[in-house]
Each structure stands twice: as structure tokens, then as C-alpha cells.
Amino acid sequence: MSAVIDITGVEKTYNRRIKALRGVDLQVGKGEIFGLLGPNGAGKSTLVKIVTTVIHASKCKGTVLGKKIGDKAALQNIGYLPEHHRFPPYLTGRQVLEYYGAMSGIGRKDRKAKASELLELVGMESWHKDKLGSYSKGMRQRVGLAQALMNDPQLVILDEPTDGVDPSGRRDIRNILTQLKDEGRTIFLNSHLLSELEMVCDRVAIMVHGLVSTQGTIEELTADQSGFEIATNAPIDQTLRSQISTLPQIPTILDGKDPARMTFQTNNAASVQPAIDALRKQNIIIESAGFKRPSLEDLFMQVVDTNHGDKPGAISGAKGSKGAKS
Amino acid sequence: MIITQTKAIFIDAYRELNAKKLFWLTLGLNLLVVALYASLGINEKGVTLLHWNFESRFFTTALVSKELFYTLQFTTWGVPIWLTWATAILALISTAGIIPEMVSGGAIEPVLSKPIGRSRLFLTKYMTGLLFVALQVLVFTVGCMLVMGIRGGAWNFNLLLAIPIVLAFFSYLYAFCAFVGLITKSTIAALLLTILFWLAIWIVNTGDQMLIMQREGSIIQVEDRQLDIEKQIEFADKRIEQLREQDKPVPGDEGNPLPDGYEDIQEAVNPALRMSRSRLVEAKESQATWTAWAARVITLKTILPKTQDTVRLLERHLITDEDMAKLMGFDAQSQPQNTSENDPAFADPRAAERSAEIMRKRSITWVLGTSFAYEFLLLGLCCVIFVRRDF
């Protein structure tokens, strides 16, 4: 995988005391949709702003699009939609696109053609003559997304792109992201909407308190927690669980909080049949049985809970970021 | 790419100005003032305003040409009052928000992520602030030039010098405004602090003018008193000669000692000389004091932008020394001529004349050089702050 973003040891300290980033290592591959998750204050936006040169890192090694961060040639190939953006309200939708296109160095003729194409892509062609001041939040977000694509970027960085967008608009944005991916572009998403990230992201990283706690594909990250799950109508007592665990060739039983469920670390349904038999023998009704993978939300909550109390700037010994689980 | 980006920033600035009603209001006011300028005239009896005639002793076509009359209107109130006060205040109100709005959260991020250097971005934005004034001054100046050509019969293209001069004047203030806007991110703070700064410059400038007038007045006073002393000595010598010719006793001669408190024979025979000498000492002390203060203020002024001196460059260029001498002559004639010994030094019309001459002869290099040095340093500081700041 050739890395579009390959940065290590990124640190950012504000006012010499607040450590927003404490040595972030991050790799984003070419042509993938990469999601950056994390609770508020984790340092996600700081990291995005460092990559887009809006803020300066205290320490940083690595490259973006094969160039040093801040390199003009690299910036020319980056499209960025910031969170809480405020585009000039006196400009029309088309003028916004043309202005930011020109700021990326695109010539007049190409700008006009690209603006028309993108306005159509984000469904704003009928509003292109109206001033941004009259747009709803969702409409501004659509224009913002189009603005980020004006320079035909190789790397598209979107900070909360679906913020304020209605469900149908979110679906449109997801489709656009998929289309961009198909065109070979790399998309870096920063969002709180885990369900949406889960639908589109190839890989994710979870940041907690200024560190990347974990990164990889969702399958990789949830592999330990995936398995065959049996749900029953009544709690399964500890004695029965112990008996089942001692059955011959039965897979490892994963820890679970719900007493009416049992999860086995396996991808082979045949291997859990003795457990089903044992449960049925005790007249326990099986409500469902099948393979189950934890959701991104489950994974997120698990990572955040694990790092609970690890407050930014409060830790003297910085914890190293983990590489991809594979 | 540089040209594309610069053009985009300027077009955006124009659109921003266009969206502000104040831009069009100011433009309308400028045209109204040009109309007022056009309604003024001069004839053999005096000054005219539309169909009204105002008789004047000096402002008649016999003494002042139409061209000089319109040039005078342009340089005495058109530029210094209208353009550099009224328009400048409206321009500051309109443009004070450009930098704070640019650096505000949500607006700066998409721009900084583009392939444009921060210093260039800041300086180009700063230049767009000057665009407001450039357009207003252009309209006003071209309007006045047309009026002068049509009504005055003289096509003076030198009037166009008002554009760079007023732009330079405004750029001094706008550099400060941009600096405050960058630091505070507040339009109100940028506007109010710039007006306070402008007021401070005005106070220094006014102080400079007054101190120069005082200094020149005190120099004239010293010169007058020295002349007076010479006359008193001459008078005393004649008196001594007369006394000796008449074989009358001369104080200070043998057997006729000087009266107490007198230092020489001349003072003894002419007591007024003693008073004149003591007044000369006072005048010299006063001159030393005013000279020292004038020097202090000029030092302070050197590091500040010279707004009034810059605007005065236009008058220097448009009104010849000959015309100025003629006007100063009119001015002197209109002043009360009898100044007494008890009048303050600056009340002497010669002091006003000399100080005006000093102001007029100030080096252009000093006026513009030191002002641009201030602006260059301030903008340099802004660039350093803008380049290093996290948004």
C-alpha cells in the first residue's frame, strides 16, 4: 500500500502546556476511505489542521502525498472541507467554487467547467446563482464539499462532512465518496457519525487524548470480538457455561456482558452445534444464532473506555501509538 | 498561479465591497462633492456658487486665475478635508473588517489549505483594503479634473497625483488597522484603535506645527530684539557724544561713577537699553525652550507616519512657489499688521509665514521615506505573526 499520508511522532503543544497531540503515527493508503474517530478533545481536528497547514506541529516527521507537510505542490492536490466552515456569504454558490478553485491555481476556463460539474454532482445546480447567505446549513455543506473537489484533489480531507445534512443528503454524500474512491482518490474523513463511517470506510483510526489508540480495517480491529453468537430467551447460568466450555472441540467462549448470549470465537457454525444441543437439553429456547461482528460503535466505546482517565496533557509518560492490527 | 490567486483575491474583495452598501453610499457622496466643486466658480467680482455671487477682494479673476482657483479648492478642502477625513473615515469603517474576517474561525482554514504563502495572502488582502480608497479617490479626482477642464479651462493631469498620495496616506492608517485586526480578530477594536491612533498622529502633527510656529516666532523675537538693542546702542552712543560735546557729565567717566546696577555707560545714558537686553535674554531662553520641544516632537514624528505632510505634498506639487507667495501676501494683508511687544511670539504673521515655508520645504524623502519605513515594519510584523500563528 503506497501511503498518501505517512506521518510519525506528530506532537502539538498549545501554550507550552496543553498537549493536544502526543506522538501520533498515522498511515493512510492511496485510494482508500480512511475514517478518523475519537471523542471530543481527542485531537482529531488538530491533526487534520496540521496536515492542511492551518496549524503548525510542534514535532512531525513524514510526508503527505510524498512531500513534506506544507509543500505547495502537495497542497495543490489536497481538497479540504473544514468543520464549522464559513464561506463568504456575499458570494453565490458558483462564485465560492470559482474563488477557491482560483486559490488552488486553476485557470478561468477550467474553473467554470469544474464548478458546473461539481454543482451538479452535489445537487446545487439550481441554486448556483443564489448567495450563500440564503442557503441552509445542509446546502452550505454541499457547496463546501464541492469546493473541496474543485482542484481535482488526490487527497480529500473532510471534517464532519455530513454535519447539518438531512438523511437523503447524507446518502448523496456517501455516494459521492464512493465515486471519488472509485476514481482512485484518497478520502480522509473525520466524523462523529460512526454508523456512516462504518458504511464507507476501508480503514479507521481511533484517537483518544492526543494519541492514535488503534488503526486498521474494521474487520481487523474487531477480529478478536467477532464470532458465532447464540441468543437465548433466558440467562445462561455460570454452571452451564462452564459445562459447555468443556465440551470436546468447542471454540473459546468470548466474554460478554449479556447473560442471555454466548459468543464463540469461530467462523465455523458446525463447531458450536454441541453447545446448541447442550442448551436445548436444558430446555433453553434459542432465539437466534449466527455470525456476529461488533459494530464500529462497540469498538469505539471499548477503546474509549479502555483509555478512560487518560486525560490530555495530564500524562507524564506519553503512550506510544499502536500500529495497524494485522 | 500567483496571478490567478491574486486576481481571485481582488475580485473577491471587489465583490465584498460591492455587497456593502457603504461603498456605494461613499461613492455617491463623492459624486455629490464633485457636483459641489463644479457649482463653484470665480469671476471678476468674486466667487460664485450656482447663481449666487459672493464679492471678494482677493478671489477675483483679476488676481487669481480660474485654474488656480479650482486647484486651491481641490488642495484646501477637496483632498485634505473631504478625501483624507470624510472618505477616509468611511473607508476605515468599510475595510476595518477585512483582516479580522479573513482570520476568523471557519473562514481562514479553507484559504490556508490552498497553495499560497501566508505572507503573500496577508499582503494581498491588505492591498484589497486599499482598493476601496483607490476606487473612491479615482472617481473623485477624475471628476474634479473634468470640472477643472470644463469650468476652469485647464486640463491639469497633475491632479491625478491625488490618487497615489491619498492612497499612501490611507495605507499608513490601514496598516495599523490590519495589525490590530490581526491581533484582536475584532473589527470594532481595529476600527476604534485605528481612529485613536489617527487622533494621536493628528495631535503630534498639530503639536509639531504649533511648536514650529512658536520656535520661529521666538527666533523672530530674538532677531527683533537684537535689532532693537543695536538701535538703542546707537542712540546711547549719540547721546554720549552729545553730552561730551556739551561738556556735560557722562556716567562712568572719572568722577562720575555709574549708577548702581548699570554695567556700562550706554545703559546709564539710555536706561531703555538695559530693559531691551534683559528682554533679549528672555527671548533667547524662550527660543531655546521652543527649539528643544520642537526637536523632541520632530523626533517622535519621524517614527510615526506623516499623514498631514503626505497630503500636503499634493499642494506643494500643484501650487507653485510663486502662487503660494501671492496667496501668502493676500493672507498677510488680511491679518492685523500691528503686533505689539506684548503679543505672543506666534501671533507675528511672519512666524506663520516662516513655519508654512518650513512645512512646504520638508524633504519628500523624509516625509514618504520614514512613513513607508513605519508601514514596512508594521506589515513585516503582521506577516511574522500571521505566518507563525495557528488558526
Read across the widest sheet of chain B, the strand sequence of neighbours is 1-2-3
What structural category characterises the helix and strand content of chain A?
alpha/beta
**Largest sheet, strands/sense/barrel of chain B:** 3 strands, antiparallel
The total beta strand count of chain B reads 3
Radius of gyration of chain B: 29 Å
Q: Report the count of strand segments of chain A.
A: 13
Overall average residue pLDDT of chain B: 88
Radius of gyration of CA atoms of chain A, rounded to a whole number: 24 Å
**Percent helix range of chain B:** over 70%
Task: Report what the structure shows.
The complex is a heterodimer of chains A (326) and B (391). Chain A is built from eleven helices and 13 strands. Chain A is α/β, with parallel strands linked by helices and 326 residues long. In chain A, helix 3 (93-103) packs across helix 4 (108-121) and helix 3 (93-103) runs parallel beside helix 5 (137-148). The two termini of chain A are 14 Å apart. Chain B has 391 residues and is mainly α. In chain B, 75% of the residues lie in helices and 3% in strands. Chain B is built from 14 helices and three strands. In chain B, a hairpin with a 2-residue loop joins strand 2 and strand 3. In chain B, helix 6 packs antiparallel against helix 7, helix 7 (162-184) runs antiparallel to helix 11 and helix 8 (187-245) packs across helix 13. Chain B starts with a helix and ends with a helix.
SSE layout:
The complex is a heterodimer of chains A (326) and B (391).
Chain A: E1 3-14, E2 18-29, E3 33-37, H1 44-51, E4 59-64, H2 72-75, E5 78-81, H3 93-103, H4 108-121, H5 137-148, E6 155-159, H6 167-182, E7 186-190, H7 194-200, E8 203-208, E9 211-217, H8 218-222, E10 227-232, H9 238-245, E11 253-254, E12 261-264, H10 273-281, E13 286-292, H11 296-306
Parallel strand pairs in A: 3-7, 3-8, 5-6, 6-7
Antiparallel strand pairs in A: 1-2, 1-4, 8-9, 10-12, 10-13, 11-12
Helix pairs in contact in A: 3-4, 3-5
Chain B: H1 2-19, H2 21-39, E1 40-42, E2 46-49, E3 52-55, H3 66-95, H4 98-102, H5 108-112, H6 118-152, H7 162-184, H8 187-245, H9 265-269, H10 271-303, H11 307-318, H12 321-334, H13 349-360, H14 364-388
Antiparallel strand pairs in B: 1-2, 2-3
Helix pairs in contact in B: 1-6, 2-3, 2-6, 3-6, 3-7, 3-11, 6-7, 6-14, 7-8, 7-11, 7-14, 8-10, 8-13, 11-14
